[in-house]
């Protein structure tokens, strides 16, 4: 049946969830049972289907042989790396021309998921009349050419489609990754890539490398603490400052190299340097829709079309600038005073109980505020008509980070700059680092567990209520698929439809990085705290992904995207804040004076440097129409390249082409 | 004979120069005349050959029908843009698949020159025995498999191979470009590209756009001079400063867009964003040698090979850093004191005559110094084993610019910062701008003309001496090819083998840009001077290229390369110098004081910002082995893509492939 029979082990990878049916199943005649119809259709597609009754839900597990996926991949014209190193549209006939994954499978998890999705939502009613369906006593019609899954979702029958964990691989990963405590930062990145896809693997590669590199400033910080440099003591902090900034600059440069190396190893086409760094063509998720759109718009270098393209580009850019201005202004005008008020109140209140109450109120309000901010940002982004989902996600990340940046650092800035008291600043830093990170780690692992327990309890209660008396003994959630369904999804705390849980993890990292870098001179020991925290973080995040959450939906982004720019911004910020800290430290008596004229000129200088290095990003270097025609060209080239594909896949297929086939 | 007969006009494009033969031609028997053999060989290659006797030299003019060039292009596997927008190795059979130039010719001037070069130096002795040749009484042997032209060069018989002007096109360009004074900055860029190749066309496009954009700050500068802003006068300069810097930042961003647009229009593959921006593969000049080298080194992701690659990369980088350090240190330790000494002596000397003498001595020494510096830099670069010629040229440009930077600005800095006298600074600026630019323009146009006249005079004298009495009347240089030979080459003043005359032209532009930007606040009117100068520059440079010099050898570089980074560096410098100028201006009485501690911290801040934005360039983002394997893959893909080419070039050829051909 398949050429790859020998190395193919069927694994159920996708689950569909339906509510539990009552006993009144055998109802109206002339109506087909929806589940039966669905299962038939799925089997027609060549999928392996297993129905599993749970306590409170019913489940359908799906597994696909490689042929079924290959057919969809060819339909979708997914671009895959071929043996000659070029990305070409997949064709099942020429399967030998395509590079396989490190574990021998033809498709990456990202591609498989994409195929599954297309397969499932591609089930339409091909007959000319509507089909009457029923489920649990509810009757409805499946119109011609309507996707069955959409209809079932609309009727509230299909509750969820989610990817399933692969138990064998999961257990292997648990052993080699989550519980592999011996080497602090070692991780099986390639296995993570195979199991979770590019984006998550890139996150863990970054986290590991960051933690390894952090050992250097951590050691430096500890040395500063222990050793007395005698008469050179006054030079110590500036030297440390210079070392830290250089360290950060080099780290991110080397990270980019690492990123390139990883993508080369995984044989992914990319453009890390230019733009946010996704695959321009050959993108897994929207490989097909993109080029067609371009082709429609841009035809044979028509000047008019080109102008329209340029107008579109500038309009979109203006909209984006307007949105950014709205976000920045509202953060400065609304959030900043609020945060300052809290910080100030906290300082002047004497009683501990009132302080506690104030903090509680503050936390409540800030939660609410963040949620509103996230909603507004997401709405604004919808205006920006960016076609690519990952670009939209990046845009959201920038806006939300602004929010969190204010939230996290304003209090610390307040201490640092207004009070000019290094000791209280150090206290605040330790407090923040320990509280926020230890508690957050606990919270992000325990909260989903409690949610899971509660859901399990509810499922058991449901079962008990419905089975009243008929069942004996203890009711338990036994099927693995139901257990996974009850686990919470790996989702972002805000902006859920564009980002997944990686947003929170990256946010945590970025805020930590800002905290340790921006106040490095005030408290060099923070780096050591960060190292310990990150070593913990690697394993707890691994555990979270493998055990606590559902298997996340794989994403195709090939770099850390917006976060790289945020880290770079934090480095520049930390140059400025540390200078201010040094001034505070060396000028303890407040004797230094700056003429207002000189101060103004220095301010102008900083603004201009910001313009030089920041604003040039506003205008993209490559005009939209050039990029469009390039992408169109590349796509066009690949469309006519079937012959090329045949020549790659080898002689056997070449022969077949010469003979008439039909 | 040719499919393109109808639109093909034969133009003699290359000339070979030989010394004039005496009358003792008919000498030894058994020796063939070298010129006759060469002409036979050239005719065998399908070239059109015309022998022209000059006054002091003999010339061979060559023209190639497109078939002859096409054959070489296929031999060289030159990568050309096909109709589907992909670059593929040229094949003569599939000529229809390839995009033509705007004027209908198949090859660009750059490609044609490359083919000519390969054709000429590919003439070897294919017989098994050496051929005895003679020229002007000199006998020598042409060994088997030895290129004939190399042997002739060695024997001193072939004096030069140079590209000829195309008189029709030249006249057209003279009218539409060099003498087109009506619209100040308009230039027929596409025609320039067709006639001179990419690099020169890009220079003129840049010069035109730069001059157009300069109109804005020039107008602003004039307004500042005329209008009195009353009580807001103290704000005028800072606002002007901010406008100028923003202007510069936006200009270069828009220039990059323009560059992309031009390359898209000329259908050139490129990577402007990453690296210095040459075509990575499909490069005209070394398309073949590159990939082979890679293939040899890097085989199937071998870890050992990868490490060797990485070691090579870092070794090369360390060497480059060492060389840069040598150059920077020698500039600071040797040139800086010298320049300062001159500036100081010039200030303290009272007598005008001594001043004049001092300047003369200075100019003499500095000429010598620059020449030595250029030689050392060129030698250093030879160590750096950069394989690409254009990268080497860039490396030279950086080093030489350091030299010229010190030379040009140190005197001005001395005035500006030590004397704190704005009026004398303004005087110095005007002096420099007018003197350097007007005189330089005159010099660079008149000097080659005088050289040409002198050479013509010598040729006539030579003729007269040899013809003693036999000729009657006035002797004149009549043949066009001899006139062109007597013209000087478009060569750089230093570093001749890596750069051509564009180095001087770009240097002039960059030094002007630095002058007007770095001292903008001291004298806003300079921008107006620069505009006038640049409008002149466009036409005089055009005239220079078309009339005064030989036609330059075309270069394939697709961007302004190293100069872009130099301009960016000058923007950052000008932020700092203008701030210093503002301090001088506003603090005329020297009342403002800066605590040494604060000054130190500010210095640290600036150093760190430099590290952040400058040093990250030292480490390339893409590891060498990734790049190598990518290039290898792409090349490999194109090597197996003959089928693809057939499918592009259309049905006719497809049919031909099915039938057995031989």
UniProtKB/TrEMBL annotation, chains A, B:
Keyword Transmembrane helix part of the UniProt annotation: yes
Q: Which InterPro entries match?
A: Anoctamin (IPR007632), Anoctamin_TM (IPR049452)
Major localization listed first in the record, in broad terms: membrane
UniProt KW keywords: Membrane, Transmembrane, Transmembrane helix
GO annotations of cellular component type: membrane
Q: Where in the cell is it found?
A: Membrane
Report domain Anoctamin transmembrane positions.
192-631
Membrane topology type: Multi-pass membrane protein
Transmembrane regions: 200-226, 232-255, 325-344, 356-374, 395-417, 509-535, 556-586, 598-615
Query: What domain of life does the native source organism fall in?
Result: Eukaryota
Q: Which Pfam families does the entry mention?
A: Anoctamin (PF04547)
This chain belongs to the protein called Anoctamin transmembrane domain-containing protein
Q: What is the originating organism of this protein?
A: Saponaria officinalis (Common soapwort)
